[in-house]
Each structure stands twice: as C-alpha cells, then as structure tokens.
Amino acid sequence: VRSYRELPFNLYQIQTKFRDEVRPRFGLMRGREFIMKDAYSFHATVEDCRREYQVMFDVYNRIFTRCGLKFRPVEADTGAIGGTLSHEFQVLAESGEDAVASCAKCGYAANVEKAEGRAEPADALAGRKLERIATPGQRSVEDVSAFLGVPPERFVKTLVYVTDSGEPVIALVRGDRTLSEAKLKSAVGASAVTLADEPTVERVTGAPIGFAGPVGLRARIVADPSLRGIRDAVTGANEADTHLVGFDLERDAPGVELADLTAVAAGDRCARCGEGRFDVHRGIEVGQVFYLGRKYSEPLRATFLDPAGAEQVIEMGTYGIGITRTVAAAIEQNHDAHGIVWPIPLAPFPVVVVPVNRADGALWAAAERVYGELRAHGVETLIDDREERPGVKFKDADLLGVPLRVTVGAKALARGNVELKPRRAEQAEEVPLGEVAGRIAECVRRALAT
C-alpha cells in the first residue's frame, strides 16, 4: 500500500464508520474479533517458574512501553484461571472498565478489588440500647439513610453469599463502602463466591432482600476491619420492613471474623507502606501474567522424572496479551475531537504526504520525492493521491490518526519548503524539502527504539 487509492476497502470503511458513527459519541472501542497472544511455561522447580514469571513481567512492561502507551502493571486476582500470583497490565483511560489503585508514596498498584488498604476504624460513639424500628419499603442503604437521617458510614451492610461448596457466608462492610468479592473469596478460602438469590437470603435470614443483619444469624460471618469498634450503628433486623438502631458489633455480634473485604477508594491509606494514600484511575486490561504453580499439572498428573529418577509435578505459568484489545485501548487513550491519535509504534503509517493539488505537476513531483526519500529511510509512508480539496485531505489524515503529516503546498514550495505537522500539534512548521525525510526518519527511529 502506498496511497489512499490503494488502501484496503475495510480500512477505508473503518475510517468512514469512525467519522460518522464512533467519533460523535466515543464509546468504549470494541472489535468484532479478539486475537490473543498466549504463552505457557513449564518448570522443574518453583524457583525456576518464579524466575520465568518475572522475566515475562519485565518483557510485558517493555512491550507496552514500546507501544507508546501510558499503563500500569497492577496486582490482580487470579480469578477463574487460578494460581497464587497474578499481575494485570492496565492502559489508563477514563473510559476503562477496571478501577486501578496506586500509591504515590511507595509505587504499589493493584486492581481496587485486590489492593490492600488500611482500614479506617469507625468513629467512637457512645453505645445505646439495640432497638427495632419500622422502615417500610426502605431496602437500600441510601433509602434507609435518608429515611432515618443517619449517614451511610454509620450502617453495617449485611450481604449474603454462597461459596462454591454451597455453604452460605455473611459479609459485613460499612454502608459507604463496596465489597470486594475477590477479597471475600480469599477470606473464606473458597474458589468462588456468588451473591445469594432471594430464596437463599430468606432461608438464611428469615427476611426478604434488603433487611438482613448479623444479629442472631447461624452462619459464618466475616466483617471488614473498618467496622471494628463501631457502635450506635444501623443494620437489618432480619425482618421485613424493619431495621435495628444502636447496633454494637462487639456486643451484638460477638465472635465474628475480621478480614479485609472492601474495595479500596481514592484517599484510602496504603497498607504496604502505611503512609501513602491511594489514587484511583480507570484502566483497560490488555495483558496478564499468572503463576499457576501446580493448579493444573497436579490434577492432570503432568509430571517429569528428576535426576534421581523420582516423579515430580511440573510447575506452570501462563501469560497473555490481548492484541486487538491493545489496539482498542490505544485509541481510547489517544484521541481527540478530530479522530484517532496513534502513537508512532502502533500507527499503520507513521507519516502521510499530502500534496495540496494532485493536478499540479510541481507539487506532485515534490510529494513523490518526499515519499521516495522516506521509503529509502525505511519509513512506511502513505501518500494522498486523491483529487480532493485540501480540507478533506487534512480531515481524513486527522481521522485516521497518522502521527506526522507532510503537506506540499505552492507557497511553501516556492520557498523550497514543505510543512511538517505532528498530529497533536496545533500548528505546522516549514522544513526544507531536502531535510524533511531525514528529520522524520530520526523521529520515527527514536520512537521505535524505546
């Protein structure tokens, strides 16, 4: 491909669709296909497997750095894949589906559901007698808070879950915080936890959804440490249209387990260093590495014979990058009102040469010269050979997101120059015709050498 006329039809169709449909609303980019780069490693020892995990972690860091993306490697829950250690690579973008917490003090970063925050204890209030109070039709913390005039942080939210073994488990978190299912799963030693359906909630608590509380429940109860010492709190009464006020965790629900259960929020203290506070960013997951250990090799009896002839179980790791998802994430992170702004390493073409008037022989000859010199420098180049108005050509170059645009116009060429405009720049600058190719080639070389 060397010109707009030779562009594959599907690329031009993408250009038109982006301009007419996607650009006006800029929803999260989606592809019709998902291409994944997968890798697995097999090892004789834990030490060798962990070494390879670190090698792949470092390689992924270099890959996304060379892609020109702003990203964070973060600790992550292993999820359904399993294993004991995992990191996600999150491209930072406001439209991201994931929330990522990072500590500016020590650099620790993790998915908010995995991040280790330091619980802020409840304010010490005077205790009072436990009392039932009618709350007809008020189910959510927000509704009951408004009904009683009590702030959400004075609530004990009671959530009923079911583990993969079928056993119910009760999770208690403060009313203004969000439960992390990944942390609950880890706290109770389950492979999976699922929010209980209405029949299960009624069987465990004796009440409809929205009125559960820890008092008197005969089930395993795990509470977040932020509830330690809470008094004069509000919680469900395990009775329809009824809540309890004056709840004291230690007095009214003695013996509950304490474990970190909440997803961290911006401003929470980092548990790793104990000093920094978390910032929260939105991210798009583009890669993940897993230390699997023996999760799959042991049940499959995947073994080898060691030097002594003894049978040993293989240690495993797995590593993946979403190729098409990385492209989508790059667009989410790099666009403006005019279209895509490709980082040079990911751009289909680093540069486009635009002669203002295709019919002008001198302009076309100069454009061909720049194109040929760029190709001689090894720079993939697109030349706009269409008989279109200059404004249309400029708009389409911006829409496609080509990082560098060389404009060949009559006025600049009369001075022996062409115009060079980076996609993000507001204005173009004039560069001597004989120097522009070398300058662009050096710019591309630096970008690809990251």
Describe this structure in words.
The protein has 450 residues and is an alpha+beta fold. The protein has eleven helices and 26 strands. The strands form seven sheets. Strands 1, 2, 3, 4, 5, 16 and 19 form a seven-stranded antiparallel beta sheet that branches. Strands 10-8-9-11-14 form a five-stranded mixed beta sheet. α8 packs parallel to α11. The two termini are 26 Å apart.
Question: How do the strands and helices of this protein lay out in sequence?
Answer:
Layout: H1 9-22, E1 36-43, H2 46-66, E2 71-75, E3 85-92, E4 98-103, E5 109-111, E6 117-118, E7 131-134, H3 141-148, E8 156-163, E9 168-174, H4 181-188, E10 193-195, H5 198-205, E11 220-223, E12 233-236, E13 242-247, H6 249-252, E14 257-258, E15 269-270, E16 278-293, E17 303-305, E18 311-313, E19 315-322, H7 323-333, E20 335-336, E21 339-340, E22 351-355, H8 361-376, E23 381-383, H9 390-400, E24 404-408, H10 410-414, E25 417-422, E26 429-432, H11 436-448
Parallel strand pairs: 9-11, 11-14, 22-23, 22-24
Antiparallel strand pairs: 1-19, 2-3, 3-16, 4-5, 4-16, 6-15, 7-13, 8-9, 8-10, 12-13, 16-19, 17-18, 20-21, 24-25, 25-26
Helix pairs in contact: 8-11
